[in-house]
What we know:
The complex is a heterodimer of chains A (219) and B (586). With 219 residues, chain A is mainly alpha-helical. Chain A has helices spanning 3-43, 45-48, 118-134, 145-148, 161-165, 168-175, 179-188, 205-215; strands at residues 52-55, 58-62, 86-89, 95-96, 158-159, 190-191, 202-204.
Amino acid sequence: MNEATHKNAFFHGLRQSLTVTLILLLLCGFVFPVLLSGISAVLFPSQANGSLVYSYGQAVGSAHVGQEFTKPYFMKGRPSAYHYNTYYQDEQGNRYYSDGTPFAGIGSGSNNYAPSNPALTQRVEADIEAFLEANPDVKREDIPADLMTASGSGLDPHITPAAARIQIPALAAASGLSEEELEQIVEDNTEGKLLGIFGEETVNVLGVNLDIAKAMGLA
Amino acid sequence: MVQLVLTLIIYLILVIPVGRYLYHIAAGKHTFADPVMDRVDGAIYKLGGVDPQKGMNWKQYALALLGTNAVMMAIGYVILRIQSIPLLNPNGMQGMKSDLAFNTIISFMTNTNLQHYSGESGLSYLSQMLVIIFMMFVSAASGYAACVAFIRGLAGKTKDHVGNFFADMVRITTRVLLPFSLVGGLLLVWQGVPQNFSENVVVQTLEGTYQVLGMGPVAALEIIKHLGTNGGGFFGANSATPMENPTILSNLIELYSMMLLPGACVITFGKMVGDGCLQHQKTPAQENMLPAHPEGLTARLFGKEGRSIFLAMGILFLAGLSLCYWSELQGNPALAEIGLSQSAGSMEGKEVRFGIAQSALFTTVTTSFTTGTVNNMHDTLTSLGGMVPMLHMMLNCVFGGKGVGLMNMILYAILAVFICGLMVGRTPEYLGKKIEGREMKLTALAIIIHPLLILSFTALAVATSAGQAGVTNPGFHGLSQILYEYASSAANNGSGFEGLADNTYFWNITTGIVMFLGRYLPIVIQLAIAGSLMKKNYINESAGTLQTSTVSFAVILVFVVYIFAALTFFPALALGPIAEHLTLWG
């Protein structure tokens, strides 16, 4: 083979690489997501736009994303390193998390504390004490573990049914609703395992609180 | 427990037809998609000047793969750097810094998907689509192409070429990745994964505060992320984020989409090698020597050689899953000590909707099939539970990523027949070919690269202040964080002990190098082995031949893998997760 054919082979290889790359870029990186958006918008418009939930026509959250609740008459979810991306705004437009630290922008994740990290036990201890103060009837060893541990995403919309039930007495006292009413609300927002086998039983905290707000005439 | 068993049984049922389909594509046989897709492929070949019939030898094939990946990286790098342009950028993202873009582009081209950025704060929708989603398709297609070429070499139908790289790449994309992604993507949207191009939504909550909800073309990314065993999330917390993985059903869809194709590759291997052997066994002398046994059901479904490889992978997988599940159920003794009941297992870093069982399963699957997506935070796993994902990335052959896991397992199989050959004093054979000096040297080299990268870079990070600066957990777990990061990089997995503060020059550059070498060196060496084996003549089976299609060979294979891992990684594991476990429970 002489030099010219070598060169030709090189350029032919490069041309194939380049064009195949560009075609796949268009097909996979553009046509596919746009096509999927188009079909989704027709078939599943609500889900495609984030499964927002509304109260009086205003979006108040998403069915799949947890929220931070601080009011005593609302059910609490799990601790979150990102406060569920929930923040308040002062007059100057500065944004803060509920604990007064500046809002860092949208995020997700956990503190990533190793099981042996002392910071984990400190955080859990502080949360347990705060919880026992807000729920004086509860015994420490009865607190379900999920309520005191952070989720992986920091946006977990669920708690276990046990973690929901244990909050009912304190919620009843703060909201003025009866325990029976609250139990019904929890049950309405409980989802079982898929086919009774896969996954876990879950209670959607935002769903519960929306129903509490309705029952209290707040929403 | 019941749900784990059922989930895996459903997998075994699903993987067989997919394996068959993949085999038809790899072998150029008829598939149902042909009437439409032949035209699409034809148009692509015509535009690109590709002659799909023109075979390449292993060197040309490797060069085409490297060259094409280089072109893709160059284009992707430019897009990441200029993503601040107001095109599909409703959330106003800035361009990416050079060292982070370097890391990101290698990460996605090598099918690793290690992420030193957070999607919701670091990428515009344009980058998510034209870089991330695009690379998720083509890196998976590249790995698959390399694997098919490797199998063709082993199956030895021809002596001079291993197929056409561009044709392999295009066929797998148009016949598997795109159609499967479209269907799977729609299922995910149905379950509640967003798919739009709107900016992030801000809502006012019931308490009068505000919440910002991430939006974007999430479902499109989500499905190919799993199907191509990529693993990089749209959002920082990956598939733990409810917007990426809202329900148990979406979790199962994601689980199966990452398990199907690597398993199918093993079936493809079994069937293609079976074809090769059949062809060569047609000599009359051979038929007289070996009375034809009727093949059993599993041999027909998986191919005889594929079956023993699949079985070995399955044993390794189940061993890891059992340890991880058991360990997570035990909970965290440090929390039990302060009075928090651990009867539900260790829930820190896990989502309530997945619980312990589906979290442990997802963790073991994502590191065995080297996807790297997570539905719980691996940094917060119990010590031994966290050791399982680390170990499976170190083994790098428990099904493994798209194609490459199978190639690694074949190397162990070659090693196994070599060791057995030494024990009985015969020249080792595999798939009817003699394994000689050249193949053994290449195999040893390819196997040694992986631990060498992991351990030497871990040593470098531990020895330098820039490396140590990333560690965020005290004690033995700090070493685990470093070890995990490099194991994940070298195995092209991409999951992380995410506490590691890794967006620094040191971590971006070193993991970039490890991912690059961990991907391309083994692929080139493996193609060289195939190129060398395919030139050899078949040798006749005799009484002294080690049968590689038996259960006992699968068991030998498992032992070889574990012995090799123990020899190389045990000291490091003892100083990391095992030491942490002993201190917690001591």
